[in-house]
Amino acid sequence: MRTTIHRTIVIGLALLLVLGLSPQLAPPVSATGLWYSSLYPADWYPGYTDGSGRFLQDFSYAGYHRGEDPIPDNPPGKTYDVTQAPYNADNTGATDATSAIQAALDDAGDAGGGIVFLPAGTYKVKPQGTNDYSLLIDKSNVVLRGVGAGADDTRIYNDETNMRARSVILARPEAYSTYVKWWTETPGEEIQTTSITQEVPEMSTVIPVSSVSNYSVGDWIVLHSDVTQDFIDELAMTDIWNAYFEEMTFYRQVTAIDTVNKTLTIDIPTRFKMKTRDNARVYKSVNSSIKEVGVERLGIGMRENLTSGTGDQDYTVSGTGAYEMHTAHAVSFNMVVNGWVRNVQSYKPAGNTNHDISLLSNGVNVQYSRSVTVDHCYFGKPQYEGGGGNGYLFRIVRSQEVLVSHSSAKHGRHNYAIVGMSASGNVLYDNKTDTGRLSSETHGWMSAANLFDNMRVINTFLTATNHGTKGSSSNGQGQTTTQTVFWNTLGDSYQSGQSYIIKSQQYGWGYIIGTRGAANAAQAVTTDAGTAPTDFVEGIGEGDTMAVPSLYIDQLNKRLSAPRVKYAETFDDMTTGSSPAGLTAVTTGGTVTVANVPSATNKSVKLTDSSASEGVRVSKNFAPIATTVKLQFNVMLDSTGHLTYYKLWSGSTEAVRIRTSGTSIEVENNGGSYTALRSYGANTWYTIKVVANPATDKYDIYINNKLEGSQLGFVNTVSDIDSFSAQSHTSDTGYTSYLDDLTLYAESFDSTATSSAPPGWTTDTGGGTVQVKAVPSGTNKSIELRDTNSSDIVKAYKTFPSQTGKVTAEFKLMFPATGNSNYVTLYDGSTEAVRLRTIGSDLQYMYGGSETTLQSYSPNTWYTIKLVANPATDKCDVYIDGVLVGSQLNFRNAASGIDRLDFRSHSTHTNYYGYLDDVLIHY
Question: What is the mean pLDDT of residues 668-676?
């Protein structure tokens, strides 16, 4: 079969190019018989590009909290049962329950959040007065929850037929305005914008700006560039689009600031290039979204409309049924961040006897939102499927990083649609589209980089094509997308009159990779300069043998299993004397400031307690972590004899308490007593690392890289950890303590099964094995390289996007014996930039054709090593156990960037092994 495909390519290539059709490429096959896409090899990393400049974006950021945290089953706050006093909602469907449910939603919102619970039954609702909703969630942390979406569970019956531009359930901020969105520079309001100083390509997380003085870590910002005439001409949309009708925007959060190089680091990569030509700029978001809102476990049915007039254009004609049903939605999310809709289904109300319908027009509409998950939902059978935005069952409008998963749509005009230039990074994963009137599609105005992953197609099709002048006469839909991927699509049957399940005609590159099923044909075409070259097609009919069945899941696993710094702060770039940005300070008993200690280039946080009745405190909050938590920090006191506390918290509950007392560093036990771990001295820095597991309520503590306490019990039982604090005692006074290099990171190996391959790493086992082992313990695992071949090597390496600036790689090494050679290398592609090696009983740094011995090493001893490499200067600093042992050493070879950390054995040595652990790579 594969030979036939190759012959077809050779013989038919010229003909295909003449017709504007894309040749179907035969994907490379692995030794197992499974195949990897040529654009997504086994060692893929974000930024990987083939020889033709084609690349797949990283779609792993889609969904609630970027896929890093599960949707909460037990969100915080009180539960409000709407059938109980004071609400007393009727759940028989006999009388209207709108006001009762709304009162509970308002009470939950006013209380700071909670669960509004609808027990089993039917709840009759309708918009009150001129409201554009039946039920409204307008504050953060509110969840509307039933018991399920089945016939005997929770059902909401919307008893209103004139639902024009209305929603049954609407989530949006209290101060929401139709014309004020998160990405809009509000008319009449002064906004401080900052110019982007050079072109920002796709997949960028570092944004060069003219000034960083207006920004802080944690700020929500908008990256914005105008649709200028030059932009329109570049996309071949002349005479189809007008300038300024849409905006290319990205809604992001600041995660780091470089005051020297004037850059902002953002939490999710950009999806399309931003040019200074188009007035590319940054500004703070002036419109607050609501967060942590959910709608779940319920059914929604809408009363049928019996007014005549349901033609495609009747939605513009007052008095028609189409006019009354135009853009009616079951659920709408507007300006929501980190929200969800799950286990929500449409159902046919018993009274709908004239039409076999469940909805008047639309299902879920996610608009001007980010990081929303829609999961295990079903919407189908709308009454009106006319023009103007009707009959869309899952609709993502100008929203970003939205995940729709495990859901199903049937009998819509467009079962799934992604709309608008600011719609990017959205993922449709493992969904079913059944008998759509038209295609599920990217719908208009150049969305960027969306993913259709494992879509099941029944009697319909998927498209990403140039719509030309369809739509508004002043601004046609035109180019609908670029960099959108169709991955491993399952086709059950073709729609009548169609001979394909996918059609792609995108601006720049688009991708069809892998199809399967009885209907598996796909078509990529180009008809003009704007959609050239013809989109990439690979693996048609061969989806069942893809080595990576789901692109989204594989990318998510790669990212989450990587050595991931959740938070790292050195305080070095902060203003001396200021309050530390990103941390919360309590100064009732003194001061908390950034200080030039130990130096002006290596600053720390200074806590000075000057009150005998009050303390000082600094704390860092983060998203709750229910798995292993690793937190490392440096501390110093100017004198002994004082009580200083370092704590890990779950909400207001202490999980771990470490303190200084007298001349000791101690930990508190579960019963309230203290155990001394070691002594400490004044004006001496100590590195403390805590490895805590809320699942077992146990932790290990290291001081200066030595394990001082193993599997110690938490002070209190907790389900997760969400903050750290350093503080003085309220009755102590007259001293100063320092905090520096606060780093929180996720462990890569501890949760991995023993003897399995390290997740997120690429291995070469020609000369032995690479496995995760319970070394030094079953709760603190590492990578083992075991070399059993005297003529081959073993290696494990981690790739990451090429960095042209400073890269810091930290890790721990241990070897059970001396006398063998092992290498840790930082690469620029295939070029060795920095190489560290063991030889004999020495640790050496290699540069050019020479080497220098840094220090000796001993068997069965862990060494913490930090390499600070800068491709801009081809220089590297080397630290071993916190001591600078090599300053500004020359690279082994000149490099333009750093993109890989490699750990390997020597090809001629055998019968030995080494261990690598606690890998941190940050830049």
Answer: 91
**Which residues make beta-bridge pairs with 378?**
345, 408
Residue written as token pair 């810091």: 808
Is residue 75 within 8 Å of 143, Cβ to Cβ?
Answer: yes
DSSP E strand boundaries for 352-484:
362-367, 370-375, 378-380, 392-397, 403-405, 408-410, 414-419, 427-429, 432-434, 440-444, 447-448, 451-453, 456-458, 462-464, 481-482
Measured on CA atoms in the order 576, 690, 620, 373, is the torsion positive or negative? positive
Alpha helices by DSSP H, listed for 181-320, are 229-234
- Check whether 485 has a pLDDT greater than 60: yes
- The average pLDDT across 835-851 equals 87
**Close Cβ partners of 55 (under 8 Å, ≥ 6 residues apart):** 39, 47, 48, 49, 203
Distance between CA atoms of residues 399 and 368, nearest Å: 5
Helices (H) and strands (E) in the chain, counts: 5, 67
| 777's tokens | 């313990």
Number of alpha carbons in the 13 Å side-chain half-sphere of residue 912: 22
State the Cα–Cα distance between residues 724 and 367, nearest whole angstrom.
36
Strand positions, DSSP E, 478-609? 481-482, 485-493, 502-504, 511-516, 522-524, 536-538, 564-569, 584-586, 590-599, 602-609
Burial of 751 (0-12, 13-18, 19+ CB in 10 A): middle
Q: What average pLDDT does range 849-871 have in this prediction?
A: 87
Higher pLDDT, 862 or 633: 633
- Which pLDDT tens digit goes with each residue over 737-777? 999 989 876 555 766 778 888 876 788 888 888 888 888 87
Taking only Cα atoms into account, the Rg of the chain, rounded to an integer number of angstroms, comes to: 30
Q: How many CB atoms lie within 10 A of CB 105?
A: 24
Percent with pLDDT over 90 in the chain = 57
DSSP letters spanning 181-208: -TT---TTS----EEB-S-B-TT--EEE
Residues 240-261: what's their mean pLDDT?
81
Angle at 433 between CA 487 and CA 344, to 5 degrees: 110
Question: What does the buried/exposed string (b/e) look like for 687-709 if buried means 16 or more CB atoms within 10 Å of the residue's CB?
Answer: bbbbbbbbeebebbbbbbeeebb
pTM: 0.65
pLDDT category of residue 178 using cuts at 50, 70 and 90: low
Transcribe 502-526 into DSSP letters: EEE--SS--EEEEEESSS--EEEB-
Q: Is 423 exposed, middle or buried (0-12, 13-18, 19+ CB in 10 A)?
A: buried
- SS3 category, 62: coil
Looking at the DSSP bridge assignments, the partners of residue 831 are 828
Measured distance CA(4)–CA(8) in Å, rounded: 6
- Spell out the SS3 assignment of 879-917: EECCEEEEEEEECCCCCCCEEEEEEEECCCCCCEEEEEE
Question: Given the structure tokens 């006019």, which residue do they identify?
Answer: 323
What does the alpha-carbon distance between residue 199 and residue 209 come to, in Å, rounded to a whole number?
10
**Surface-to-core class of residue 165, CB atoms within 10 Å of its CB (0-12 exposed, 13-18 middle, 19+ buried):** exposed
Please enumerate in sequence order all residues whose Cβ is within 8 A of that of 211, keeping only pairs 6 or more positions apart, or say none.
194, 262
Identity of the amino acid at 432? K
Contact 235, 475 (CB under 8 A): no
pLDDT in tens, 701-744: 989 878 899 899 999 999 888 889 999 999 999 999 999 989 87
HSE on the CB side for 62, CA within 13 Å? 31
Q: How far apart are alpha carbons 878 and 876 in whole angstroms?
A: 7
DSSP assignment string, 742-776:
EEEEE-SSTTSPTTSPPTT-EEE-TTEEEEEEEEE
Is the pLDDT score of 19 beyond 50?
no
Residue 284 phi, psi dihedral angles, 5° rounding: -70, 145
pLDDT at 1: 24
pLDDT digits (tens, 9 = 90+) for 603-622: 999 999 999 999 999 998 87
Would you call 284 helix, strand, or coil by DSSP?
strand
The DSSP bridge partners found for residue 678 are 665
